Automatic annotation (TrEMBL):
Keywords: Cytoplasm, Methylation, Protein biosynthesis. This is Peptide chain release factor 2. It comes from Aureimonas jatrophae. GO terms for molecular function: translation release factor activity, codon specific. The gene is prfB. Peptide chain release factor 2 directs the termination of translation in response to the peptide chain termination codons UGA and UAA. The keyword Amino-acid biosynthesis does not apply.
Amino acid sequence: MKERQRLESAIGGIRDLETQLADNVELIAMGEEEGDQSIVDDAERAVRGLKAQVAERQVEALLSGEADGNDTYLEIHSGAGGTESQDWASMLMRMYMRWGERSKMKVEVLEQHSGEEAGIKSATILIKGHNAYGKLKVESGVHRLVRISPYDSAARRHTSFASIWVYPVVDDSIDIQVNESDCRIDTYRASGAGGQHVNTTDSAVRITHIPTGIVVACQQERSQHKNRATAWNMLRARLYEAELERREAAANAEAASKSDIGWGHQIRSYVLQPYQMVKDLRTGMQETTPSDVLDGKIDPFIEAALAQRVFGGAVEVADID
């Protein structure tokens, strides 16, 4: 039923676009025939308005993976470089949270380790929404920032790295068996805001899956029981994502590219000085307003990367004149 609903929605959306286009083309012809320019202008405006809907349907068509429709976890880890890299990691965290909000998705911070002076060492956020994993899966990799560091008294230019790892939330239709004897469970005091309770109880939970070395942690809730349940769900999701990577050679190559958070492994560069540009090194996609990108406007990069995965190159929505 879920697959049927997905197909009906996709086919119905395309048919609706076809109908709107045909109706407006007919209106343009009628307006020209009757010499009524206002009808022509309104119809042309409506046709141009279809471009955004076409772009959205085009992205939907690129998402056909087994878990593309699922909610997603997104992990952020700062690279070497101390405070500068930790600040960069916090900027990326804000970027993805803003993207989630712009996309009408629900965003929750599950775990966060703050830096000593500023920024974060690592964080895990949960993004809930239609095709959240399908869209964000192409964001996995190393992201590089070049700027004049506000933490350098000599105002020198610094290069910082942070890594992003995206993996899907496992829903009830996917059965992932985890042997508890293969796991080590640690509890500790959560860090960050939350009042006296956070500082006095071991409510945070960390689970280590010994055979694979996968580690997950959650400190979102005040209750250790709830954090434990969330951590188990995160572990099952990580194990499922590992299985998906084993099935897809492309995903295996991508996982290998995430081995080091540093030079030669980045998927995207964000340059703030001496010029301003964001460039995706996989697709060649560029944007000259980094402030907009860092405010969550990353859909063009996502669309280009998805198109490259499916077709081996970027696919553009043609301009409607």
